């Protein structure tokens, strides 16, 4: 028998944004987020994200399941799947295990696919994790990332490192 609390937890968490917003949005719990207005900054979601036809988003996006019908300028990491539906206009790089681009949708960038095993999440390291992984000082990691010597991507004010790219970099003897 379901208690009142159990039924309450089953209620879908929906956030429908039809406004102009700027900043960093991070959701730690799954939510169904729909953006119909303007957003600029960094967007990190769990659950599903829908960017509506009227939306204009200038942001790097990380999420689970993402559907885009509007305009997006920024890099996208979809951990489960990414669908571009008409009249979507996406400019930026895409990383996802499953990509669908419908007729009438536009994509300008590079795409990278990975196995849907969760390995990708574990494959991304922050500066502190990378310093421990390489057994070097974190300040050195920051210095190398800032100078472009270390393969890295900027996420807001933080550096992110792909373990596989770091392993290649080390194998090439560039860690001197």
SSE-based structural type: alpha/beta
Topology, number of strands: 16
The run of helices and strands is HEEEEEEEEEEEEEHEHHEEH
**What proportion of the residues is helical, as a percent range?**
10-25%
Major beta-sheet overview:
13 strands, parallel
Low-confidence stretches: 5-11
Total helical elements:
5
Strand percent estimate: 35-45%
Rounded to an integer in angstroms, the radius of gyration calculated over CA atoms is: 18 Å
Mean pLDDT score, rounded?
A: 83
Give the termini distance in whole angstroms: 63 Å
Instruction: Give the overall shape, derived from the CA principal axes.
Output: elongated
Short description:
This protein has 176 residues and is α/β, with parallel strands linked by helices. Helix content is 22%, strand content 45%.
Q: Your description of this structure?
A:
- There is one protein chain.
- By secondary structure, the chain is an alpha/beta fold.
- Helices cover 22% and strands 45% of the residues.
- It contains 5 helices and 16 strands.
- Strands 1, 2, 3, 4, 5, 6, 7, 8, 9, 10, 11, 12 and 13 form a 13-stranded parallel beta sheet that branches. Strands 14-16-15 form a 3-stranded antiparallel beta sheet.
- The longest helix has 10 residues, at 138-147.
- The N and C termini lie far apart (63 Å).
């Amino acid at each position: 028998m379901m208690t009142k609390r159990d039924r309450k937890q089953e209620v879908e968490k929906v956030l429908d944004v039809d406004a102009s917003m700027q900043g960093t949005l991070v959701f730690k719990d799954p939510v169904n987020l729909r953006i119909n207005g303007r957003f600029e900054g960094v967007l990190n979601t769990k659950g599903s994200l829908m960017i509506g036809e009227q939306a204009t988003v200038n942001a790097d996006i990380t999420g689970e399941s993402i559907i885009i019908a509007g305009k997006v300028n920024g890099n996208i990491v979809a951990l489960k799947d990414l669908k571009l539906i008409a009249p979507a206009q996406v400019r930026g790089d895409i990383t996802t295990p499953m990509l669908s681009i419908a007729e009438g949708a536009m994509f300008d960038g590079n795409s990278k696919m990975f196995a849907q095993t969760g390995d990708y999440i574990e494959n991304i390291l922050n500066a502190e994790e990378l310093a421990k992984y390489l057994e070097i000082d974190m300040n050195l990691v920051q210095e190398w990332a800032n100078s472009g010597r270390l393969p890295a991507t900027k996420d807001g004010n933080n550096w992110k490192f792909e373990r596989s790219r770091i392993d290649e970099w080390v194998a090439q003897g560039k860690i001197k």
